[in-house]
Amino acid sequence: MSIADGLISGAGVWLAHLLYGLMLLVALWRAPWAILHRNSTLQHLVLGATVLVMMMWLLRAGISPGMSVHFLGVTTLTLMFGWELGILCSSLALLGMTLIGKEALDGISINGLCASVIPACWSYWALRQVERWLPQNFFVYLIIGVFLNAACAAALSGIAMMGVLWGSGTYSFYKIWQEYVILLPLIMPPEGLLNGILMTAMMVHHPDWIRTFDARRYIDEQ
Fold first, then answer.
1. For a designed S-S bond to 68, which of 60, 73, 89, 207 qualifies (C-beta 3.0 to 4.6 A apart)?
2. Cβ burial 102-123 (10 Å sphere, 16+ → b, else e)
3. Predicted local distance difference test score (pLDDT) of residue 106
4. If you ran DSSP here, which 8-state letter would residue 169 be given?
5. Which of 199, 183, 189 is CA-nearest to residue 1?
6. Which parts of the chain sit beneath pLDDT 50?
7. Considering its fold, how many domains does the chain have in total?
């Protein structure tokens, strides 16, 4: 989902500005700038991934303003670069969407929280739980750490935006249910599959591109 121009106003927007701004500051503070500065390959990956995510976000569908759906790809960003760069890359994609008029400027913080911060933080936390509680296995990482993780991230993103639209009184719960909630089970598998395909290709051919994937742990030691 994404907030259309003028759809939500009031104190909630300013609260979103504050929360999103704080998360961006934390991500900027914790991002591995030293590594990024001296690693030209990582720089190209970050730029390319940001552009790819922005192109994915251009492909969307929906009926009512604010209830359009699109692939996120934030789980892949987070697993590749960590949650800090995951938030920053997806935020740059959101900024690009705003500059070309595909997203509303006054809704950038709400969109950023729902489409960037929440899925990035969830994806990183979920992966850490997989590493802590489940066997260190290639297929566990792929199926649960990537596919299921991305599907859940998409669901949480949509539920968060649903809560914003319903809590602000923009739409009734029935309208949101009919136009979005009942479609969530159809949206989650493609999101998981897309992230799974991208991650599988990198895990096989370029595992060094994935910051959270240790080939020695998940492949060599099996």
1. 60
2. ebbebbbbbbbbbbbbbbbbbb
3. 83
4. T
5. 183
6. none
7. 1
**Dihedral class, residue 139 (left if φ above 0, else alpha if ψ from -120 to 50, else beta):** alpha
Residue 152 belongs to some domain of the structure: yes
- List the beta strands (DSSP E) in 22-170: 60-61, 69-70
Tell me the pLDDT tens digit for each residue of 162-189: 888 888 777 888 888 887 788 788 889 9
pLDDT of residue 65: 63
Tokens of 173: 């719960």
Task: Catalogue the E-assigned strands of the chain.
Answer: 60-61, 69-70
CA 199 to chain centre: 14
Predicted TM-score (pTM) of this structure: 0.93
CATH number at residue 62: 1.10.1760.20
Report CA-CA distances (Å) from 50 to 45, 46, 112, 140, 146.
8, 6, 14, 27, 19
Angle made by CA atoms 95, 123, 217, in degrees to the nearest 5: 125
Q: Estimate the crossing angle of helix 74-81 against helix 40-58, to 10 degrees.
A: 170
For residue 200, the enclosing domain spans 11-220
The 3-state secondary structure of 192-205, one letter per residue: HHHHHHHHHHHHHH
> Whole-angstrom Cα distance, residue 82 to residue 27?
10
User: Which residues partner with 60 through β-bridges?
Assistant: 70
Dihedral over Cα of 83, 188, 136, 134: its sign = positive
